[in-house]
Design a protein that fits this description.
Strand order of the largest sheet: 3-2-1-4-7-8-12
CATH architecture of the domain at 2-188 and 229-252 and 292-312: 3-Layer(aba) Sandwich
CATH superfamily of the domain at 2-188 and 229-252 and 292-312: NAD(P)-binding Rossmann-like Domain
Helix content: 40-55%
Largest sheet: 7 strands, parallel
Low-confidence stretches: none
Structural class: alpha/beta
Number of strands: 14
Oligomer: single chain
Order of helices and strands: EHEEHEHHEEEHEEHEEHEEHEHH
């Protein structure tokens, strides 16, 4: 039985990953380490909290006593590091906490994993792997054409993306220097159930349901590539199982849209299917945020070519699932 340490598992992508893995595999154990900051909630995992294969641990990835004790007590085989402060606006206001959690937390996990897994000179426990979950934002901003590949130079432009890029480089250093078994994944914008309503799609859904203004930065033409969270989880699973030593994999959804088009698509669907009073009059353009990257777009050919992954969820279907989840959540609390 493999034992996974999933950090940040009470957050958006982490909770969906835990649910995905427990649903797919019967012979695994999942330890969820989460500090339960504002964006993490155990409500996201109520359906698995009594599963004998699952255990929640309330704690911080920066805790230099707790983290090594988990490796020793739980015999961890695989680390999937989702734990991160991830909101750009918050990183602009308070960059220190991003550096602490995203960089120092990753370093603490690397040190604990290496100490637990090392069995000889650059030889590690069989089947051990450290998977760093990163972001396409470490690559910076694209012009109207082109795609980010795994060889695109890092050019982070916010305290958030800089802290993630720094963590990625440390993970790569542990692979190069210590031969530690690692992978890094960099995904495009995720959407789906359980996302905290500070990001674009859940914020627009929440405000629309409450008939509140929908704030759109600048001219609304910033472009993002959107990936349904379950497709992301499936990609991470493949990387864990078959990812090459030290390799980086970009995970993209083949769904590029300007932000304003996303907002209008949501409003149109909700107007026709949820509430006829929801319409484009709710859109409110606000001052653009500092350092707002114009366009992100992922080239996922490597993960498709090497691991056989492709996104399966059409954007139109994913949006219906996502809106439905937030409607039910609002109705039932």
């Amino acid at each position: 039985m493999k034992t996974y340490l999933v950090t940040g598992g009470a957050g958006f992508i982490g909770c969906n990953f835990i649910r995905y893995m427990l649903g797919k595999y019967g012979d695994i154990k999942v330890i969820n380490l989460d500090a339960l900051t504002y964006a993490g909630s155990l409500d996201n995992l109520r359906d698995v909290e009594n599963d004998a294969r699952y255990r929640f641990v309330h704690g911080d990835v920066c805790d230099a006593v707790l983290v090594p004790s988990l490796f020793k007590g739980e015999n961890i085989d695989i680390v999937v590091n989702f734990a991160a402060e991830s909101h750009v606006d918050r990183s602009i206001a308070d960059p220190d906490v991003f550096a602490l959690t995203n960089f120092m937390g990753t370093l603490n996990l690397l040190n604990a994993a290496r100490a637990a897994w090392l069995t000889g000179d650059d030889v590690y426990k069989d089947g051990a792997k450290f998977v760093q979950i990163s972001t396409d934002e470490v690559y910076g901003s694209l012009g109207p054409e082109g795609l980010f590949t795994e060889n695109t130079p890092l050019d982070p432009r916010s305290p958030y993306s800089a802290s993630k890029a720094a963590a990625d480089l440390m993970v790569k250093a542990y692979a190069d220097t210590y031969k530690m078994p690692v992978n890094i994944t960099r995904c495009s914008n995720n959407y789906g159930p359980c996302q905290y309503p500070e990001k674009l799609i859940p914020l627009m859904i929440k405000n629309a349901l409450e008939h509140k203004p929908l704030p759109v930065y600048g001219d609304g033409l910033n472009v993002r590539d959107w990936l349904y969270v379950d497709d992301h989880c499936a990609a991470i699973d493949l990387v864990i199982e078959n990812g090459g030593q030290g390799e980086i994999y970009n995970i993209g959804g083949h769904n590029e849209y300007p932000n304003i088009e996303i907002v209008k698509l949501l409003l149109d669907y909700m107007n026709n299917n949820i509430d006829s009073e929801i319409n484009e009059s709710l859109i409110t353009y606000v001052t653009d945020r500092k350092g707002h990257d114009r366009r992100y777009a992922i080239d996922p050919q490597k993960i498709h070519r090497e691991l056989g992954w492709l996104p399966e969820t059409k954007f139109s279907d994913g949006i219906v699932k996502t809106v439905g989840w937030y409607v039910r959540r609002r109705k039932h609390g």
